[in-house]
Design a protein that fits this description.
The complex is a heterodimer of chains A (about 280) and B (about 70). Chain A is an alpha/beta fold and about 280 residues long. Chain A has eleven helices and eleven strands. Chain B contains one helix and five strands, in the order E-E-H-E-E-E. Classes of the chains: A alpha/beta (about 280), B mainly beta (about 70).
Chain lengths: ~280, ~70
């Protein structure tokens, strides 16, 4: 089947709809996308990209508009994000990025779920305790948005495996839970010459920043990698669900901005918030 | 001189959220942390007037100093 044939079939499947603001658009229903996959042999993601290039909007993304244009949505579908750590931050980052339509996700965690994860880790359930977090993440992505392709690594990121894991990734996301491993990811992103979005939580507090390869990055926050504390306030105060979920949301907003080719608002800045009293600070480095 | 000191997270416990403090001129951020009986190794970021600063930094009259703990969880 030629590309023209594929386009024609997508056009035929689209129907005119109205947005809540009264403006009209051509919509592609999810059910019809599945039919087009069968008919054309294209992947779901390919169908969605071709549709968006012709301003036919997959209905699953309609509420992303008009904050995101069809062109923006194509860029997101062509972006590959590596989520390193699939716990409190990473589980929610996975959920949000799959829903907004980031086209490829590399999912990295060597851990399995345990009881103590249930308070905040959206991927953990009483019926998957003992199961790998990376598998649960891939399952969740398939259940939410099957157009998103996943690459699963049931291993912890290390200096040895980082380059192989991040091979095709455009943006790295630090959802790790130790300061030492954050530095390993930062170095790997620097070597790959890709930006990294980083967040950390402890108690009801959280912080987030964006690091580009040429930036000083995490050593401004944690000090020299050789002398930095291995863990922080979370050892004493635990990690509360609303801190994890809100900082994951901050990371995702930054990832989408970077994926769209816009300047990263948290570059050379640290956003710090405490949800006990809803105070926040934006620190310039 | 007067410096507004803002504390975050558990640094507030048994201390304060924000207070205007009187210090002698030439006192460093690190010395202020010591006077507040905060363990320096628990301190992550210090900020003077919304800019990152080092423990050696010397606050001036009217400055706002914010002290944040190390946060590393996920």
């Amino acid at each position: 089947m030629t590309r023209e044939d594929v386009v024609q079939r997508i056009v035929n499947a689209a129907t005119r709809q109205l947005r809540p603001d009264g403006t009209s658009y051509y919509s592609l229903a999810y059910r019809d996308e599945l039919g087009l996959v069968q008919e054309t042999g294209c992947s779901l993601k390919e169908i969605q990209i071709v549709a968006l290039e012709h301003d036919l909007i997959p209905e699953v993304y309609i509420r992303n508009q008009k904050s995101l244009s069809s062109r923006d949505q194509v860029r997101l579908l062509q972006t590959h994000v590596g989520i390193i750590g699939l716990g409190g931050l990473g589980g929610t980052v996975t959920e949000i990025l799959a829903r907004i339509g980031i086209g490829s996700l590399t999912l990295v965690d060597g851990d399995v779920f345990e009881d103590s994860n249930l308070n905040r880790q959206l991927l953990s359930r009483v019926d998957n305790l003992g199961k790998p977090k990376a598998d649960a993440a891939a399952e969740r992505v398939r259940a939410i948005n099957p157009a998103v392709e996943t690459c699963v690594h049931r291993q912890f990121l290390s200096a040895e495996n980082a380059q192989a894991i991040l091979k095709d990734v455009n943006i790295g996301v630090d959802c790790l839970d130790s300061i030492a491993s954050r530095f390993i990811l930062e170095q790997a992103c620097r070597t790959r010459q890709i930006p990294m979005v980083s967040a950390a939580i402890g108690g009801t507090s959280g912080q987030a920043t964006a690091v580009y390869p040429e930036d000083q990055g995490l050593s401004r926050i944690y000090g020299d990698p050789g002398t930095a504390s291995p863990k922080g306030v979370e050892m004493m105060l635990g990690t509360l669900p609303f801190a994890a979920i809100s900082m994951a949301a901050v990371e995702c907003a930054e990832i989408v901005t970077i994926a769209l080719g816009k300047p990263a608002p948290l570059r050379n800045r640290l956003f710090i918030t405490d949800l006990t009293d809803h105070t926040a600070e934006l620190i310039d480095f | 001189m007067h410096v507004t000191v803002k504390l975050f997270a558990y640094f507030r416990d048994n201390r304060f959220v924000a207070e205007v403090k009187e210090y002698h001129r030439g006192i460093s951020v690190g010395e202020i942390i010591e006077q507040l009986e905060i363990n320096p190794s628990d301190v992550g970021i210090t900020m003077l007037n919304s800019r990152h600063c080092r423990p050696e930094a010397l606050p001036a009259e009217g400055d706002i100093l914010a002290i944040f703990p190390v946060v590393g969880g996920g």
